[in-house]
Write a structure and sequence with these properties.
With about 260 residues, the protein is α/β, with parallel strands linked by helices. The chain contains nine helices and nine strands. It is about 40% helix and about 20% strand. Helix 1 crosses helix 7. It binds 3-hydroxy-5-(hydroxymethyl)-2-methylisonicotinaldehyde. The site of 3-hydroxy-5-(hydroxymethyl)-2-methylisonicotinaldehyde has 17 residues, from strand 1 and helix 7.
């Protein structure tokens, strides 16, 4: 069984972060492990409920995972601070051969700030060049590039190539809605590829980005090539959003197990 670790924040309400990743790993039949960088206890109001872990705690978790079990692929989500990014960058250098999927998480669905403003340059310089794939959404891509990205295929393709110039192994720009379809643009230095999926009309999409990247990481760990892993993950998250759960107040959770249930 392939062994996959997520380095991310704990999202107490269960839709996103570590919780989304572990649920998704289980769905995709890989062995899930976690390195928790922060605790997010409040996604619906302010940023009061964000607690950052110490770098020595992060390092200890990573060593436990790497030495006691071993790692076939890593997913990286919320890192929050410069200090954590530098620590994670140092830890990842100890596993150079392991595929690394970096979801450059910046803002939660309810507006919580999950990456400090002064951390973006450090993320670009130290972490992104170690990625096998980065999966920014449009807003994250705009912050990484320092420019606006327009909803036209031309500009989306240009932006994807600009992101590739930051030196990851490959880029998947989750562009969001273009003409009623959810469009992603992929570039690995060779061919540009466009992935499309019908858009689902719901506000209950909390955890979608994490779930997508977690599924992708699991597939890559199993040896699925990148285009195939992206296709599977698009289907997986499409089902999870289609059958999302409008629990409580605010933005409801994706249903991580929807594809297995094969409810349509
Ligand atoms: O969906 C982005 C995200 C990632 N990681 C954690 C989160 C959230 C959204 O709230 O809480 C820990």
């Amino acid at each position: 069984m392939k062994r996959v670790v997520t380095i991310a924040g704990s999202a107490a309400q269960g839709s996103a972060g570590i919780q989304a990743d572990l649920k998704t790993f289980q769905e995709r039949d890989v062995y899930g492990m976690s390195v928790i960088t922060a605790t997010v206890a409040n996604n619906s109001r302010t940023d009061e409920g964000i607690f950052i872990r110490e770098t020595k705690e992060i390092e200890a978790q990573f060593h436990a995972v790497n030495e006691m079990v071993g790692i076939d692929a890593v997913k990286i989500g919320m890192l929050f601070s410069k200090e954590i990014i530098l620590k994670v960058s140092e830890l990842l250098k100890t596993v150079p051969e392991v595929p690394k999927i970096i979801d450059p998480v910046m803002i939660g669905k309810m507006g919580s700030q999950l990456l400090a403003d002064d951390a973006i340059e450090v993320l670009k310089k130290y972490l992104i060049p170690q990625a096998t794939l980065i999966t920014p959404n449009r807003l994250e891509a705009e912050k990484l590039l320092g420019r606006k990205i327009f909803s036209e295929l031309d500009d989306l393709e240009r932006a994807t190539k600009e992101l590739y110039a930051l030196n990851p192994g490959s880029v998947l720009l989750k562009a969001g809605e273009v003409d009623g379809q959810a469009i992603d643009v992929f570039y690995d230095g060779e061919a540009l590829k466009i992935f499309e999926m019908p858009l689902i009309d719901t506000i209950h999409t909390s955890g979608a980005g994490c779930t997508f990247a977690a599924c992708l990481t699991a597939e890559v760990a199993k040896g699925v090539e990148m285009a195939g892993a992206i296709q599977i993950s698009k289907q997986f998250v499409h089902a999870a959003i289609k059958h999302s759960l409008a629990f409580g107040k605010g933005v409801g959770s994706v249903r991580h197990g929807a594809l297995r249930q094969m409810i349509d």
